[in-house]
Amino acid sequence: MEKTEHRELTYEHTYIPLTTLSSGEGKEIAIDIYGYCIQFVNICIMGNPTSRDKEWCLVDAGMPQSADEIIRVAEERFGAQRKPTAIILTHGHFDHVGAIESLLEYWDVPVYAHELEIPYLTGKSNYPKGDSTVDGGLISELSPLFPNHGIDISNHVHPLPANGIVPGLTGWQWIHTPGHTPGHISLFRAKDRSLIVGDAFVTVKQESLYKVFTQEQEISGPPKYFTTDWQAAGESVRKLRDLHPSLAITGHGKPMVGEELSRELGRLAENFEELAIPKDGRFVH
């Protein structure tokens, strides 16, 4: 396993060490952003635990069978019986909604997603099966075995407001970043240019089991085996590049900041076809 890497980020007058997020590990990336890794996917617990009201939101809902772990981490940060004001979903793939049904049984809170993602969250549509024909590695080859069915949380899910406001997250806006899924979104806070990416791009080569295990950092396009619209995916990456983010928290991989983020995201945006799009695959052409 590679050695843990340490870097420094001055963030709203707070000294933040950024390190690799390993499974079962959490990091306070900012006073109101807590990243936590579940197996190979990241969730974000949003809110300032030192505030009087201790209000918070959850962004994405991790892997199946992880509800107890998410609840434990949230309650350690905000106290027992303090449920989130909302759960925000970047998209509905199994590794981002795996625990949501159990979480809703415990918390009973509203869930927000893009209107184009709602059919996959109300039992009306299934995602295409993973594409094993894309290049990349063992995870790509295994992807047809991953769950691709939609879920039904009709009693809780709502479309995000059309004006870009994110319910429960003051100062953040949602941005439609399709390609990986039709209704994929990312979250952006303009005052400090913080970006929660989802899977619009990631900071690990997600198709490779070895690189997922070692968490070797490299900006990559959205996971190839589940991405269905490569033209839209490229446009989404360029849209995020044009925001000039200072911090990016991706659905897979460790956070990236500063000049490295600017340089590598720019490189991906400018060379998306070469760096991100697989040579072959069901959705390439």
TrEMBL record:
Superkingdom of the source species: Bacteria
Catalysed conversion reaction: 3',5'-cyclic UMP + H2O = UMP + H(+); 3',5'-cyclic CMP + H2O = CMP + H(+)
Domain annotation Metallo-beta-lactamase: ranges: 40-252
Pfam families per the UniProt record, alphabetical: Lactamase_B
InterPro entries, alphabetized: Metallo-B-lactamas (IPR001279), NDM-1-like (IPR050855), RibonucZ/Hydroxyglut_hydro (IPR036866)
Reported function: Counteracts the endogenous Pycsar antiviral defense system. Phosphodiesterase that enables metal-dependent hydrolysis of host cyclic nucleotide Pycsar defense signals such as cCMP and cUMP.
Protein known as: MBL fold metallo-hydrolase
Origin species: Paenibacillus alginolyticus
